Amino acid sequence: MHGDLIEMSGTMSGGGKPKSGRMSFLPSSHADEVMMSDENKIYTKEDLDMVTKQLYELRERKSMLKNQESSLQRSLKGFDEALDLAVNSIRLLEEDIDGCTKTVKLLEDQIG
């Protein structure tokens, strides 16, 4: 017996599994009962309107940020391509400099 209680009459009590973690809900027929007065209904409607407006504004901002993200991704791709071109140009120029340096050295040795 783990956690069971034996009462003086000899009956066992307790020991059942707790029923926690379940979700409770109010059926739609009880939704109007939750609002107690007309004042609460008006306040709840205003609150709903305010939250609905905020939701709309957040969705608009999300859309705007998504567009901005796409634009920045395109720009970043362009910058990456420009960087690759610049790196390749530098590499080619370094090869040209090395070639010119060798040519200058060779000519100096022939002249002097």
Q: Secondary structure elements and their pairing?
A:
Blueprint: E1 5-6, E2 12-13, H1 31-34, H2 38-111
Antiparallel strand pairs: 1-2
What does this protein structure show overall?
This protein has a domain at 36-111. The chain starts with a strand and ends with a helix. A two-stranded antiparallel ribbon has the order 1-2. Strand 1 and strand 2 form a beta hairpin. With 112 residues, it is mainly α. It has helices at residues 31-34, 38-111, and strands at 5-6, 12-13. It is built from 2 helices and 2 strands.
Could you state the order of secondary-structure elements as H and E?
EEHH
Total helical segments: 2
Shape: elongated
Kindly provide the radius of gyration, computed on alpha-carbon positions and rounded to a whole number of angstroms.
39 Å
Q: Indicate the proportion of strand residues.
A: under 5%
Helix content bin: 55-70%
Q: What is the mean predicted local confidence, pLDDT?
A: 79
Q: Termini distance?
A: 108 Å
As residue ranges, the low-confidence spans are 29-35
- Number of distinct beta strands: 2
Report the sheet with the most strands, covering strand number, pairing sense and barrel closure: 2 strands, antiparallel
Major sheet: arrangement of strands: 1-2
Structural class, by secondary structure, is mainly alpha
